[in-house]
């Protein structure tokens, strides 16, 4: 059985950038290129390879700020500011780093990295192989199923909360697919979609645990407190669209080659790019982990 590591590239790069950006140290090289995000990206990237020991690796990316979700809800993620100017040149360079590792970058315009990860994870698991997803995004927890684990990065390098079918309910108190209905009810301030106004996380958890799904809850709406009944009726449209926004799309039109994803450990190629192109000193800090 192969073991695929699916990496959320945006999550690693953003985390790496903001870990040092607050100090004002952008690690600018002689080419006037900031590299602090790349430095952090490499820390997380190589650590995940060291910890999870995959046979195959794919790195997934967002491809622009507009996706099909903006067509469903115009305000989706509209609260997010443009990335800092010091981060912008590091997006393409991070993908070049992945290229230097001989690992495929995958992203599809109109879809988020989450959707690409969900599509790949399903295809790979359905073929009988094992998947580990590395991200800082709890939205991906809905993807946990047989042969699919999700490792959420915690503070510091090397700290992960790993979710699988054996421990998920104990950790979360829900089943993975119920995460979608939970977020549909409570909304998501980070992604800027509303849910049902007046229903927060605590109430949403209680409702999903009791009724198991939004559909079953609505079928038994007369048993709910009057206040919640009113909210569900008033914000019915918001609930419907929030549910669509919360669900990761698993049918992105993408292709991948199992052969191209094999982790080859071509250290000389990696060292050349990190040292000669990016001007990182002591690249062994990363190479020694892989």
UniProtKB/TrEMBL annotation:
CDD domains in alphabetical order: H3TH_53EXO, PIN_53EXO
InterPro entries found in the cross-reference section: 5-3_exonucl_a-hlix_arch_N, 5-3_exonuclease, 5-3_exonuclease_C_sf, DNA_polI_H3TH, FEN, HhH2, PIN-like_dom_sf
GO molecular function term, any single one: DNA binding
SMART domains (alphabetical): 53EXOc, HhH2
Pfam families xrefs: 5_3_exonuc, 5_3_exonuc_N
Entry keyword set: DNA-binding, Exonuclease, Hydrolase, Nuclease
A GO BP annotation: DNA replication, Okazaki fragment processing
Descriptive protein name: 5'-3' exonuclease
Organism listed in the record: Gracilibacillus halotolerans
